[in-house]
Design brief:
By secondary structure, this protein is an alpha/beta fold. It has 10 helices and 7 strands. Strands 3-2-1-4-6-5-7 form a 7-stranded mixed β-sheet, sandwiched between helices.
Length: 313
């Protein structure tokens, strides 16, 4: 099968008929087999009942119902596991993404890229509450991950199947999928796509996600830079802290022994001791991290490399 379109939804009953109709119109004009996988992430309205009706009318449509609201990352993971296509396209179910942009994403993939991300250049959302925080977040994510994209938050993306096979989704990592794909050697591109205002239903996104995005970004940065060598980050912090503490301790020792300067009631002495202990702790964390990483790879025979292609036997 050429293409799988994965759509996670939560309480989108009113939007589903038009969404499926638009997808059917686009997929009918594409070469190769295709399917639509809608993942109901614990909806409390009539979303799955609507999916039952649509499935009876559209053989291309498949539906998955999760037991509760696990979140968008889990819903996408369920869709990826069920997808049969060589290419997987993701999009939101609120009709703000336009299915008519799917051929543009596929054309970019055909140029040799492994991941193509949509860029909502003319985004139809409130500026102060949605667009400005998104612009700041995209700048920060691009700088930290080294994968410059204008719009990490755009759900309309296309992935080659073999890339997704090497990326595990958990937590709320779905927004960092292009960066995680780059981590495993994927070529990432971006194309401008249309964006429509929401006409029905209620948005599930808000500023409350900001702290979670920042914490997940720290995780992504660690995974991309130090996943197989945690001692290099924790050990470096530990060494800097310990050296600073030992340096202060040496100065204080010299003052006490040779200059007869009393050490009692001097906070800098406590600081020196604290820095030394922090240094020991960070080095210990790095060593424990090294053991965990080796246990992970060796017990499960996880490779530390990924082959793009082979020539010959």
């Amino acid at each position: 099968m050429r293409l799988s379109v994965v759509v996670p939804v939560h309480d989108e009953e009113a939007n589903l008929p038009e969404l499926v109709a638009r997808l059917e119109a686009v997929l009918a004009g594409l070469d190769g087999g295709s399917e639509i996988i809608v993942v109901d992430d614990g909806s409390t309205d009539g979303t799955f009942a609507a999916l039952r009706r649509l499935h009876a009318e559209n053989p291309r449509l498949r539906a998955i119902r999760l037991r509760t609201n696990f979140g968008q990352s889990a819903a996408l993971a369920a869709g990826f596991d069920a997808a049969k296509g060589e290419v997987v396209v993701t999009m939101d179910g609120d009709l703000q993404n336009d299915p008519a942009d799917i051929p543009a994403l596929l054309a970019r993939l055909d140029e040799g890229y492994d991941v193509v991300s949509g860029w909502r250049r003319s985004r139809q959302d409130p500026f102060w509450r949605r667009r400005l925080p998104s612009m700041l977040a995209n700048w920060l994510i691009s700088r930290v991950t080294g994968v410059p994209l204008h719009d990490y938050g755009c759900a309309l993306k296309a992935y080659r199947r073999e890339v997704l096979d090497h990326v595990e989704l958990y937590g709320e990592m779905h927004r960092f999928l292009p960066a995680l794909a780059k981590w495993v050697g994927a070529a990432v591109a971006e194309v401008p796509v249309r964006h429509h205002p929401r006409r029905q239903g209620r948005s599930k996104y808000g500023l409350g996600r900001t702290p979670r995005v920042l914490l997940d970004l720290l995780t992504v940065k660690f995974m991309m830079s130090y996943w197989t060598r945690p001692i290099q980050i924790f050990g470096l912090i530990g060494l800097v802290s310990a050296i600073a503490g030992l340096g202060l301790a040496a100065v204080l020792t010299y003052q006490r022994l040779f200059l007869d300067v009393p050490l009692a009631n001097r906070p800098i002495l406590l600081l020196a001791v604290l820095l030394i202990f922090i240094g020991i702790q960070f080095v210990s964390i790095g060593l424990l991290g090294e053991m965990v990483v080796r246990t992970y790879h060796e017990s499960q025979r996880k490779p530390i490399y990924i082959v793009r292609e082979r020539l010959g036997a």
